Amino acid sequence: MELTPEEQEMAEGKYGKATQKAMEILITLGDIYGAKRFIDITSVQIAGVSYANLNEPGLEWLAEMAKDGKVRVFTTLNPAGMDLEEWRKLAISEEFAKNQQRVVEAFGAMGVITTCSCTPYLYGNLPHYGQHIAWSESSAVCYANSVLGARTNREGGPSALSAALIGKTPEYGFHLEENRQPEIKVVVKPKVEGTFQFGALGKVLGDRLGKKISYITGIPKASVEELKSFCASYATYGGVALFHMEGITPDRVEAIPSETTEVTEEDMKKAIADLNEDTEIDFISLGCPHASLAELEYIAKQLEGKKVNPKKETWITTARPTKQIADRMGFTKMIEDSGAKIAADTCCVVAPIKGRFHGLASDSAKMCYYGSGRNKFSVKLMSVDECIEEALR
Amino acid sequence: MKLTGRRIFQGKVEGEALVTKDGISFYGGVDPDTGIVVEKGHELEGKSITDKILVFPTGKGSTVGSYVIYQMAKTGKGPMALILQECEAIVAVGCIIGEIPCVDQIDTTKITTGSTLTVDAGAGVVEVG
Prior knowledge:
- The complex is a heterodimer of chains A (393) and B (129).
- Chain A is α/β, with parallel strands linked by helices.
- Chain A has three domains: 5-177, 2-Layer Sandwich (Aconitase, domain 3), CATH 3.30.499.10; 181-274, no CATH class; 283-392, 2-Layer Sandwich (Aconitase, domain 3), CATH 3.30.499.
- Chain A has helices at 5-12, 17-32, 51-66, 94-109, 138-148, 157-166, 194-209, 224-238, 265-274, 293-303, 320-329, 331-337, 365-373, 384-392; strands at residues 38-40, 43-46, 74-77, 113-116, 133-135, 168-170, 184-188, 214-217, 244-245, 260-263, 283-291, 313-318, 341-344, 359-362, 378-381.
- In chain A, the strands form four sheets. A five-stranded parallel sheet of chain A has the order 13-12-11-14-15, with helices on both faces. A four-stranded parallel sheet of chain A has the order 4-3-2-5. In chain A, strands 9-8-7-10 form a four-stranded parallel sheet.
- In chain A, α3 links the parallel β2 and β3 (74-77).
- In chain A, α10 (293-303) crosses α12.
- Chain A is globular, with a radius of gyration of 21 Å.
- In chain A, 54% of the residues are buried.
- Chain B has one domain: Glucose Oxidase, domain 1 (3-Layer(bba) Sandwich).
- In chain B, 19% of the residues lie in helices and 30% in strands.
- In chain B, the strands form two sheets. An eight-stranded mixed sheet of chain B has the order 1-10-9-3-6-7-8-2. A two-stranded antiparallel ribbon of chain B has the order 4-5.
- The chains are: A alpha/beta (393), B alpha/beta (129).
């Protein structure tokens, strides 16, 4: 890679140890992927925040970087392993809570905005079309590249932090126009509606096409909530960082690929059936990715004046800013009076809940994947309304 | 036999090769507390990578894998060095932060388990036998 005099000095350690380490990481990645130079970025989003994933060594590395590292661009965080304020409500241990706070403090010391959310674009970290960014949460990377038309690779926690400390990223992969063109056309035959069906479509395409960039047709409209569910699922099952959707996503497509694949009603039914095990539900999770304000309002109105079954734990995960407005609007009270819980700052993928529950119901295909793999639950994918019915039953 | 590849992270070590034709997912695929490969059906399932020179085609899976590599390096459960066909971001970042010698662009099919390797990762050189 060609370096500017300032970049050269950063690599030599004149800007401190953390900056030097960050440069070492980014230059190595740039060399591996054939980048010729660094490009400026406008924002960063860092994953690897839950102490359950970092463990003590990961935390020590962050603390070491925090000794003299300061971010140079606007940077936010992915969900932590718990609600940073009301963790007791979620039965998180004292010890875990203490360690999780240390992680958040280390990021805070580097100037990272500690909004812990997988949907940063809903809470002030919103790039526009064509902007270069370095994000790491897989669903947010997919959303930013595809729905917003920003440019990012799928960063890991350390490479995203490095980009934040330098304010730049090596120019390769999805930062280059020529790597963003579609490779296969997808024709979606059935009507796809609601977060859970969009999640199922993400599983169909992810399982079938892997990382191939798709040009999706047959979706006349999609809400922000449906798109974030689709992005989460497609990235989980296919490792996808970018897709195009006719009439919905903004990237300029030079040519629609001739290779075509069809998604049928049968494909959708099979994906939903694959994520519906025969099990007793004792855990209901909504808000993966983090619930929007509109979703919280809807759930609150469905639960108002009712009681969830006390034998079932019901969590609605969201970002802190959303919860604060939900508090003001009375949505939090409506939800918590029913016995369901709002869990802010965290999510059921990264919270330390392995083995705590047996059967999980969720409207998120991503949640079902991690619920079954990482947390060893049996899972059921269903609509938001069905999840609420299940909680009340 | 001398094989030459590309430096990912520098360091000189000598040790015993543990070779696989399967990619490795460090997050979920390797238990960081024991150094044992736990991925079901993996060629190395049940084997420990601790203090071995691990020879494999490429990394795969979640980017949290970088922290798993780092954790093993810090707790003494890590491999001595990593030799790959093609290094990707997860393994590269793990080696840089964990300071584990790493070389890629090596024809890993030329190395067999149990052979002694002398690695000069800074020069990108792996000597077999």
